[in-house]
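note to self — DONT lose this again. spent like an hour looking for the file last time. sequence + predicted structure for the chain T wanted, 155 res
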Amino acid sequence: MIRHISISAANPRHVAEVMAELWGGRILPFPSHAGSYMALAWDERGTMIEVYPLGTELVPGDAEVEFRENDSPSHFQAVHAAIDVTASEEQILAIAAREGWRVLSCNRGGFFEVIELWIENRLLLELLTPKIAPLYTKFMQPESLEAFCAAMGVA
C-alpha cells in the first residue's frame, strides 16, 4: 500500500489545498523543505501527498535524502498515481473547471475506470471515486490479474 508520494508543482500550497479538498482532508506545511506542503487525507492510514516547488529534486545524501533545486525542470513528469478520493465525479469536474485543469473520465481497456485530473495541466493523477473504486480493486486482485496475464499470454 502506498502511504504517501511526493510531487512537484508551480504552486505547491494551492495544489495541496486542492488535493486535500478532493479527500476532505487538510494541509500542513512540510517542515523539511521550505515552500512545500503536505496534503493529508486525514484518514486512519496516514495517506499523504507531499507537494514540493517545481524544480525540487530528491537526491541521495551523505546520510539521508537531500533536496536540490533544478533551475531548468521539465514541465512534465513520468510520475503519476491512482488515488482514492472521497469526492464524486461531479465534484471533481467542478473543481477542475474552477482550476482550469484538464479532466477526463476514462475507461482503461474495459477493466476499470479512472478520472484523469491533470494537476496544473502537467501532472497526471488518476482519481478513483467511491463509485468507480470497487471495479479497480476487483481488477487488481491476484486472481483477476492471473486471468488477465493468461489472456495476454504473459507467464
